[in-house]
Amino acid sequence: MKKFFIEEKFKRAIHAIEIIIAVILMIGIVIGLIDLVKYFFEILQAPPDKSYDLFQAFLGHVLLLIVGAELISMILYHSNKALLELILFVIARKMLIYATSMTDLVFGAVAIAIVFVTLKFLVKNDEEHSEDTGGEAGDKAVPAGNETEQGQ
């Protein structure tokens, strides 16, 4: 009984830390949105020879914010799908911003294909999961720490 009590306290403490980290990330993303507006106006005012570099930096910033949002999803929901989507955006960002050779692009395309195949054939979606468990659609995406409340 005491072991269960200690284990439950640790789960709650870890969940609280995860929520704090997610909130801090969310604040960072909101602050990053301000920079997007600044980039947008810089691109509009830049001469044509500088706009490509500015737009590339803009895309890098946008994708970094998307990766941050996906990281929040992964932290809070602990699902395989959220992890694979995070990996997908990280690979896409790498390909769009940092790829310098055709080899980088080919490896990135193969990696994205592997992630898509994994999502399609190895990760159950919400409807399939609900049919297997007898629950409602969306049961799989339960925030961490709520497993006991959902009966999982």
Describe the protein.
With 152 residues, this protein is mostly helical. It has one domain (2-143). The chain contains six helices and no strands. It has helices at 2-45, 48-77, 80-98, 102-121, 126-133, 147-150. Helix 1 (2-45) runs antiparallel to helix 2 (48-77) and helix 2 packs antiparallel against helix 3. It is found in: Cell membrane.
Key features of this structure:
Transporter; 82% helix; flat; transmembrane helix; 6 helices; transmembrane; 152 residues; disordered C terminus; cell membrane
Q: What oligomeric state is this?
A: single chain
Task: Quote the beta fraction.
Answer: under 5%
SS class: mainly alpha
| Average residue-wise pLDDT | 82
**Helical stretch count?**
6
Please write the string of helix (H) and strand (E) elements.
HHHHHH
- Poorly predicted parts: 133-152
Helicity level = over 70%
Q: How big is the Rg?
A: 20 Å
Number of domains: 1
**What global shape is seen?**
flat
Number of DSSP E strands? 0
Main pleated sheet: none
* Span between termini: 20 Å
Subcellular location: Cell membrane
Region (Disordered): 129-152
Protein name: Transporter
Main location: membrane
